[in-house]
Amino acid sequence: MVNNKHIATFILGALAGLAAGKYTSMSEEEKEQMMNNLKEKANKLKEDASKSAEQAKDYFSELATKGMDSLKEHFPGAEKWMSDLFGNKSADSHTAASDTGSTEASPS
Question: Is 91 a member of any domain?
């Protein structure tokens, strides 16, 4: 049974064959020009990707800052709540254990 993956593989193979045939029939000057064009496009793509990655980093940094500011504005106790929720668990458990121990010792 032939599925879409087989058809796509066949088409890509045929296109690769045509490209190879075209490349072999080119003059050395045309081959060099084509390679230079490909290098320029690859460098441009690399620059665009670097810029996009930097923009994404800045965007997420700004989003985190604005998000926390917005959260603080609409939920004034958000910072304490987040600290309590995600804070140092081992220090909290030691504090809770010492508090529990001190309250149990006083009634006896």
Answer: yes
| Residue 97 within a domain | yes
Q: What is the DSSP letter of 77?
A: T
- 24 DSSP assignment: H
Q: Is residue 19 part of a domain?
A: no
Domain containing 92: what range? 55-102
Summarize the chain as % helix, strand, coil (round to 5).
90, 0, 10
pLDDT of 59: 86
User: In one letter, which amino acid is 9?
Assistant: T
Give pLDDT tens digits for 16-36: 999 999 999 999 999 999 999
Supply the DSSP symbol for 27: -
| Predicted local confidence at residue 105, as pLDDT | 47
Is 43 a member of any domain?
Answer: no
